[in-house]
Each structure stands twice: as C-alpha cells, then as structure tokens.
UniProtKB/TrEMBL annotation, chains A, B, C:
SUPFAM superfamilies: NAD(P)-binding Rossmann-fold domains. This is Metalloreductase STEAP4-like. Its cofactor is heme b; FAD. Residues 249-394 form the Ferric oxidoreductase domain. The lineage of its organism: Eukaryota, Metazoa, Chordata, Craniata, Vertebrata. Pfam families: F420_oxidored, Ferric_reduct. It is found in: Endosome membrane.
Amino acid sequence: METDLSSMIPLHAGSQQKHDTLCIFGTGDFGRSLGCKMLQCGYSVVFGSRNPQATGLLPKGAEVLSHREAAQRASVIILAIHREHYEFLTGLTDVLEGKVLVDVSNNLKINQYPESNAEYLAQLIPKAEVVKAFNTVSAWALQSGTLDASRQVFICGNDHKSKQKIVDIVQALGLTPLDQGTLLASKDVENYPLQLFPMWRLPVYIATGLTVFIFIYCLLTDVIYSFLSYRKDISFRIAISIPNKVFPIVSLILLGLVYLPGIFASILQLYRGTKYSRFPNWLDHWMLCRKQLGLVALAFAFLHVLYTLIIPTRYYVRWHRSDNVINQIKSNATSPFDIIIAWRTDSYMALGMLGFLFYVILGITSLPSVSNVVNWREFRFVQSKLGYLTLLLCTGHTLIYGWSKFLDVSRYRWYLPLPYMLSLVIPCIVLVIKFVLIMPCVDKSITQIRQGWERIPKSDMKSTCTNGTIAV
Amino acid sequence: METDLSSMIPLHAGSQQKHDTLCIFGTGDFGRSLGCKMLQCGYSVVFGSRNPQATGLLPKGAEVLSHREAAQRASVIILAIHREHYEFLTGLTDVLEGKVLVDVSNNLKINQYPESNAEYLAQLIPKAEVVKAFNTVSAWALQSGTLDASRQVFICGNDHKSKQKIVDIVQALGLTPLDQGTLLASKDVENYPLQLFPMWRLPVYIATGLTVFIFIYCLLTDVIYSFLSYRKDISFRIAISIPNKVFPIVSLILLGLVYLPGIFASILQLYRGTKYSRFPNWLDHWMLCRKQLGLVALAFAFLHVLYTLIIPTRYYVRWHRSDNVINQIKSNATSPFDIIIAWRTDSYMALGMLGFLFYVILGITSLPSVSNVVNWREFRFVQSKLGYLTLLLCTGHTLIYGWSKFLDVSRYRWYLPLPYMLSLVIPCIVLVIKFVLIMPCVDKSITQIRQGWERIPKSDMKSTCTNGTIAV
Amino acid sequence: METDLSSMIPLHAGSQQKHDTLCIFGTGDFGRSLGCKMLQCGYSVVFGSRNPQATGLLPKGAEVLSHREAAQRASVIILAIHREHYEFLTGLTDVLEGKVLVDVSNNLKINQYPESNAEYLAQLIPKAEVVKAFNTVSAWALQSGTLDASRQVFICGNDHKSKQKIVDIVQALGLTPLDQGTLLASKDVENYPLQLFPMWRLPVYIATGLTVFIFIYCLLTDVIYSFLSYRKDISFRIAISIPNKVFPIVSLILLGLVYLPGIFASILQLYRGTKYSRFPNWLDHWMLCRKQLGLVALAFAFLHVLYTLIIPTRYYVRWHRSDNVINQIKSNATSPFDIIIAWRTDSYMALGMLGFLFYVILGITSLPSVSNVVNWREFRFVQSKLGYLTLLLCTGHTLIYGWSKFLDVSRYRWYLPLPYMLSLVIPCIVLVIKFVLIMPCVDKSITQIRQGWERIPKSDMKSTCTNGTIAV
C-alpha cells in the first residue's frame, strides 16, 4: 500500500509550496533521480555542476549553478559524485564551512579503501559536518516510486543536529531513516549495499557440500551398486528416490549443526568458568548464521515432505504395487497383515510430520516482523525449547525409520554404512550432550556464568567489547 | 505483544499527570474515541461543541466548551467533523490563528472533491497550520485497544514544527507516525483508507478471467466431449481432475505475465535508447502489480500441489487402479515396467516440486518485513535470478509432462490444442526473449542505458519526474 | 542484514569521537554490557560504584567513580541496579536534581510490587526526571550484537524532553525506541519482558483440552470398541488414523470459536442497543485472542492436511488395498464404479483444499508486517469476509465428508455420536446466526449502533474508556 502512496506522490510534481533549499553536487543518474524526488516532495533543488551550461536533462524546476554558487544557496549539500573526484571540494572549503555534506557514495567492492568514503570526506573538509546517507537507495527505486525493496536509509554522522536534518529529509521523501551512530559506522554502511547475503554464504556452502557428498554416496550404494551387482538399470531413481534420501539426511545434519555451536559455547564457558572471554572466530561466525542454517534445513525438509507425498503417484510405485499384487495372486501366497510394521511405519511418519510442523513454526518465528514482537523470554523459549523438540522429533523419526535395518547385513553395500545413519551422528551427539548440560548440577553453574559470575574474576573486558557471541 | 501493552494502558484511565491540553472539535464517535484515548495517555482534553450543554456521553475528565472557548485553551485542535461543516470555522479565524489544525476527515469515495479536505481547510483558514493525520485509524481500534490492523498514522503538512507536534502525540498514543511530506500528499492520505487492495484488482481480474476460460475449455474437451462422443458420464471430474488442469495452467501463465512487462520494458528501452522517457501507462501499471500477480500465481501453484498430492487418495483413482490390476490378471497380460516412462514421470514431478520450492521462497521474500531487510542487490538477485529459475523449472515441468502428447492425434478433441499447450505460450516467449536479452552484446547496451547513458541525449526530464517505472 | 551491521560496529571500539557523557550506576552484568555498547557507539561512559577501586572487569575507556562524582559528570544517569537498592539514591537527591534517571530494572514476577519500579523511583527522587527504558533488552544481546530478537526499546516518562534524550541514545545504539506514553505505562513495560505468550495461553489450553477429549473419544469408539466387540487389535491406528480424526475436528471447532465471540458481541450490542457499554471480561479476553485461536486452528489444519496426504503411503492402507483387490479376484466379484461416491469424495476433498488455501491466506495476513500495510477496510475484508468463507468451506467439507453416515445406525458405537458430528455443532451455530445477522434489517441496526448511535442515549462513557472491545 505504501509503495502505492509513494508512487502517487509524483503526480504532484512542481509544487509551489517551499521547503528549504537542497543542493546536489553532480548531475549523474543518482543525483538527477534524488533531485527529482526532492522536488516532488516540495523541496527546491539547486544542482552544482562543473559546466552548468552543458548539463541538459535535469529535473524541471531545478536550477543548475557552479559548485560554489550552488553550495552558497543551501545548508545541506548532497554529494552525488564518486570518491575519486572529492579532491576538488578542497577548493570550496570556505563555502562548505559549517554546511552539512551528505556522502551518498558507494564503492565497487567491499573495503575498497582503508577508510570509508565518508571518513575520507570528513578529513578533506574538516570544517563541514559529514553525514553518510542514501547510499542504500537505488536510483531506479527513486524514479519508479516502487520501493518494493528496502526503504531503509542508513544514516551516520558525528554531529547530532546535522544528522537530524538528514533524518527529516529522509522522512519527507517517504523513506525510513535508521540512525547507525557516528561516522565510525560509515564503513559498514558503505559495505552494506555491496553485500550479497553474507550470512547465507556459509550455510549455503555447507548445504551444497553435504548434498553433493550424500548424493554421490547414495548413487554409489544404490544405482551404481545394483548395476554392477545385478546389471539392473534403476537409473530413474536419480530423479526422485535418491533426492528423497538426500534431502532428509542433509536437513537433519543441518538442523544438528544449528544447535552444535550452542553446545560448544556452553562447554567452553563451563571450561573457562567465565563468559567474558571471547569465543574463537569460527564459533562466533557459526553462531551468527545459525538462523540461516536453520532456514536452509527447513527448505530441505520441505522438499523431503513434497518428495515423500508424491511417492504413491509415481509410475514406478504404482507399477510395483500392482505387480506385487499380481504376483501374490499367481503364487497364491497373500502376505498377512503385520501389526508391528503398521505401528513402526505409522509412528515414524507421525513423528516426521509433527517434526515438520515445529520446523515450520520455527521458520515463521524467524521472520523479522514476528521476532520483533516477541520478548527475549519468548524468543528463547521458541528458539531453544521448540528447536530442541524439533530436533528430537526428527531424530526419532529417522531412528524409527531405520529401526532394525542396521542389523540386516544384506543391506550394507561394500560394507558402507547405510545413508540414513550418516544423518544421525551429529543430532545424536547434540541431543546427548544437551541432555547432560540440562542436568540440574551442570545447568546451575552455566546459568551463574551467563549471569556474569566468574570462577576466577579477571578483567579482560576488552574481549566483551569485541563481538563475542553468547550462546542462547 | 504490543496490542497487549496498549490494551493494558486504558486501565490507567483518569491519570492526574498532565501533558499539554488538546482540543477536539466535534463530539461524534471518532472525536469521543480519540479524546478518550488521549485522556488515557495523560493529555487533558477539551471538546468544542455547538451546544456544550446538550452533549452527554463524553469521556470522563474531558471538558466541553463552545468552539471558541475550547480553541483558546489548546495550541492543537483536532477537527473530528465532516468537511461539509468546515465553513463555520471561518467565524473562528481570529482564535485559530497560528494554531495547529489537525484534519482527521475521510471522504466516502476516492477523489470525491477536486482538492483534498486538508487543502480545502488550509484555504479556509490560511493563518492556521493544517496537518493531516489520524484518518487511517479506526474509532473501534482506538476504543478496543486491539490495533491488530495498521497502527500507522500517515501525517502530512507544510509546516515542519506543527507536524512534529502531531508526530509526538501520535507516538504518545502508541501509534506509528509516517511522515508523508507536504499537504500535497493529503489527497493520497485521504484516499488510502478508502482503497480495497487497489494493486490486487488487476491481477485478480486476470486470474479470474483465465480460470473461467481454461475451465470451460477443459470442460468442453474433457467432460462434454466424452459425453457427446461416448455417452460416458465423467462429470465427477469437475470436482478435482479438471481444476487440477486449470490451476497449473493459470499459475504458469500468470508467472509468465510477471516477467513479460520486464521484457517489454527492456525492449522499449533498447529501442528508444534511453530510460528517461516514460513507459505507456498500461505498462507502468502492469509493472507495479507484478508482485501481486506473482502471489496469485503462487496461490494457484499451491492448489495444484494439493490437488496433485490428493490424487492417490481419490476413490476414482483407487477404483481405477484395482480395476486395472484385475483386468491384467483376467487377461493374464501384465504390463512390463517401462524405464522411459519412469524417467519421464519422475523427472517432471521432480522439476515441479523444485519449482514450487522456489515459488514459495519468492513468496516469502515478498513479505514486507523480509524485503525490508535485504539490500537492492539481494532483492534483485532473488526477484530476477530466482524468479527466472522458477519460471524455467515450471516451464520444464510442463514440457516434460506434455512430452510427446502433442504428437498423438487421438488426443486432440475437435482439433483444439491440448490444454497444457495454452500454458506454455507466454512462458516460452518470455524465456526465449530473455535468453536473447542476456546475450553479452545486448546486455551491455541495456546496462549502459539503465545507468543513465542515452543514445540521443534529449532533456525530456519531465517524464522521469512523473512516475516512470524502470524494469528490474 | 541489520544484525550484521550492528554486529560489525563493535569493531570500532575505542572511538575518539565524543558524544555527550553518560553515567551508569551499577557495575553488574547489564550495566557493563550497556556501557560497553555505548562506548562502541561513541559515547563516553562513567560508572558510579560503591567502591570504585574494587571494581575490575569494566569496559576499556570507561571511568569508575563514586556515585556522587559520576552523577555530577552526566545529565543522563542509567540505574543498572535492583529496585531493592534504590534507597541509597535519596542520599544523592542534590546531585540528581534535574537529571534524567533511566530505570532499566525488571522484576522477577509480574506485578511484584504495588507500584512499578519507575514510579517508585519517581517518588524517591521527585526532583529528577524518571524515564523507563532498556528493560526489554537483554545483556547477552547487547554483548553479542546479534539482536535476532526484539530490538524494540519501550520508553515511557512524564517529561517529553527527557524522553527525547533517551530516544536519541536508543537510536544511536541501533535499537528501535517505542514511546509508550507517561510513567503510567511503566508497569506494563516492566511486566512485558516477564510475559510468556500471554495471549496464547487461553487458545493453547482450549486446544489441548479439546485434543485430549476428542482423542479419548475416538480411542473409545474406534480402537477400544473394536477390541471389546471383535477382539481385534487395531491399536496401530493410534499413530495416524486417530490423530487424523482429532486434528480436523479440533481445527474446525477452534475456527468456530474464532467467530463465536463476534456473534455474541453483535447480539449483545443489538440487545443493549449501544456499543458504549462494556462487554463482560471473558468476552473481552476471548475477542483479544481470536487471532491466536485462529493460528492454532491453522496448525491443526496443517497437520490434518499432512496426515491425509500421507495416507496412501501407509503400509496399512497399501496392504488393505491389495488385500481388497485379491479378494475381489478370488470372489470374482469386481465392485462396479459408483459415480455418486466419486462425486461425493472428490467434492469434499476439493472443498477441504480450497478451505485450507484460505486458511493459509488468513494466517499470512495475520503476520505483523502484512497486517501493518493494509488499511482497516482491507483488514476487515480479509478477517471477516475471507474468514467466514473459510469457515463455510471447512464446514461444507465436513458435512459432505459425513454425508449420510449419520443415518447408518451400525456406525454408532455405544449410541455415541460419530466424532465428526462433534466438530459441526459450533461452526453450524455460528454460520446460522451470522446468516441472520447479515439480513438487511438486522445488519442495518448493528451498523447504526457501531457508528455510535444509541437506542437509549445514556452517558456511561466511563465504560468506553475502559478496555471494551468492539466486534470486528
């Protein structure tokens, strides 16, 4: 709906009502788009350009002057120019004094320069107030008015007043300002739009690696094995049967990996007797992407559910069943109903489906808008209590599915473990250790430690101030 | 949780703590509810009424005075009266001078009057500062305290200070202020609460039209045909079999329609050699409701999945299968296992399910809270890359499903194309053109154009300032 | 992404850039964490402590002084100490005068003290401005920088300026301030982090109760009955068959319970002829947790769908079907195809699946981020129109599923009604009454009443000001 609203506003272009004047250096695409949007929202806009004459193609109602003249007109100057051209600003130091310089620039790759563009600007023109803003907004979005994507504008700067000015402008443009603190944050703000799901990378890599490995493993022990042994071509199993072995295995392993770092952290804290010493980086990073790991696991579980439910519709299955019936009749040997099998199959299916329900609930609560309206107590209840319940159900599901298969030697191909066993290792380890950790005695001391108690108090607080993650 | 909080606040009704005084003109339902809420949040409230005596039924702790007296008491005056009665305010111009007049009015239909109520008010009392606010909040919501629906209050006005005053009040009432800029936006703000899913209308119409058409088409070529030809009554297929042909077809066509406008836009830009000339309105509108189109397509895909997975549970299917087996035995002719069919069926099912996964992921990323925390690069990665992958998978799913059916003349009824073919037209066109567009040579020039480069630079910038959508 | 940003900020620890100074009383875990975060965001921090010497383990760059000295240094003093120790502050009244005291304390249980900690503080130091804030943020979250859970900081206080100061700090820390009004709200703010899904409790209790009851009911009439009557052990049905009877029944009853209170409310309003008299508490509470009721119902529906789709994969079902075929052949009596059954089964499945689609859509629209961007008209359209459509579809689904079963005496065990009948009672009542209520004549007067019209105007407005919920 908002997009709708904001997309209507442009209709009022050319408003006579006057906000204060804004100055934009640079008449490139972004400068033009921004100026255009500002005009639409009732600001008057002055462009600063190297050769004011030669610049066609500017928004109606906007003036174009030399940089110097333009700068004098406004108290806020938006620099829609590349960092490479900042030098020339030093020539304008006198007019820029006390003005708010808005750095909207982005780089081509993350951490391209030692210091952020905004910090570099602040060093160039120390007498001006530099504010970083608008770098996350796309020129296209401004023009199209369809801000489907982020309407968030990260803002940082050292001077509170100047920041407030920009915050007001951002709001007037119908965008959402997000104060990120001082210019120190500008590096992150500049890196932000260059990121492509940084937190998702590790989980996706792990998932891909696992998938490939398990797939080949199943291919060997299933299709290839039966081809080599019996010259039987069951290659068609590559389409559904084998993926439907791979998906649940990967999903369960990933779910285990979501809770493993928490276990490590607890043990580490117990061992160190304090929470004020930093975790190793790999553990930190692992903990920070648990949510993403979980969601990837959910996607695999989702596929497993689909692939399982489609089974009876498959030609192979249908053929197999009718073939089975026909043979029974021909051989006149009807297989009797075995209540044990009925119990076993039904219960592992039931466990699986219950597990999937909680899986989905976990996924839903990880939606930003949902996790924003729950308090810490609730969030931890869902993420740890429900999370472990899910892990428990899914592990149970797999165990009962496996049942006594592992005893049946004939099932082992080339003495390799059965695929489903691979998926059980990590979850079982996690569950067992967790079980130990929640024993009253152990739990008590962990809780103490997490409340700040220390076995040997020592003030290496620095570590706390760096980004040490605490196990939740 | 918040609703919970806000719904508790009323318990503190009748606070002695004093904020500044607010004046409300009009003792109607909305005026009373608003006054009541304000009292609860610690403001003191004065009602202005035509005959202060005769108005019973007002919140405890609120005074009722004549309009003139009430106005003198407060610096902020909320007008909870209909636009029709604004005239009488002209009589109070002297007391209203310099005060903040809050226009909360709504109209009965969109664009009822040439100018918005707020603008009309601003003309009536030029010396007062008019702010539009609260018109999106419902009286019921204020009373019940359950703000399940939007807690957003759109605010617009020409004077920044006055706007800030209202923003503070809105926040104090536990609502979310959204600055929409100057009074120019008031028309949109007033139209907003009258809208009923404006962006959904077109997609829903298209979907309905397609559904009806395809349904009748299938009805003819399936039920009616076989009745006319063989006097065979298979009308029961209307319940599931035929819908399960209609849903996937409509879903795929809609998905194609999501990406078609982007294709048009690119071609148009290539042809015009610039992005600074506006797209035709129909294309603009089409592009603005791509998201909704996609979500409707997802709903149909969802139904297709359900209807497909239920198949083996159906009485007809079960009967058919056992009948089939019985015949095989009687005729003593068992059909051999055909690995080609196994491959074909399994692989189109696999493609379909993978396609559905990405379909769902696309749907999730279109949730406001999700799309708000991704940057542009990520948003476009998901929406275009993943989007086209989905389209590709679903088209492949349909192609393999069709396989060689189209060669089998016996399947054509009345020489009409098979239903599934209808669904392939648009997606295939889109995919082919897209394939051409991403060829390095073509892609390069599109990228240039989108970065603001022009073949024949000409400054019809006006068009950019109107709402021209850029293809994403 | 934001978590990502905020989690990077700590890297800039030890900034030379100077915001104003903040003072923190108390060197406990939370005080340290908060101080640490503030240092990272460029504030300078002074700790106030009983014995400044003995406190090791403080953030680098923070000073530690006596309470008195520390207080003199800053205009904002954060009290990271327990309410129990507030008394000692009375000794500092002179230095605290005019300062902003931020109460971050939480209690151990809800409504532990007659007045909130913040109000108690305000009484102790009347000359200081007390602001309640930060109590919803966890120390761990501050340290880890991973604010997956709520980044919301509820703020309330009587003095607007002081509140604004805190709002600025909160934003600078990258958190989201939420103004909750005056100190009157502090009790709610303090209770908030202690809550564990308060609105979910009732729905979950109801659901659990119903589930247990229906489960036992089915167990009796199914497993136990057939054991007692025919000595037949079908206990395996406990795993899937019986739950798949329980889930839909509970789901439908819950869905009925979502719309029942609305019905009651309308009748009550019609009877009383006014909306300005408060509903009984039980009805209020019921209406406030309708959303949660609906979501629980959705979860059960979800399980029902899964449990139904898995049916043909089950060993029992497969065995049963092939057994059935074999018998047909042996007895040489093939059952003919019955088009009536085909129609009936297909159509109740179709209704069920359509119902589920709308169920899911309702669930999605109840996501905070979605319901935030729809206006009231749209919200009520979805929640009432679509809601009743869903109820209608699901009831129809059940009715057609039941069909003529209720006529078949043999199905009644111990003269108990068939389970599915239990689920139909409430939904049918709701639908019938609703049908009456939307009759033009009745509807007209309800609408009038809801627009504030009264049959016998009487000003018991007090009730409106208390939390009376209006039926939506």
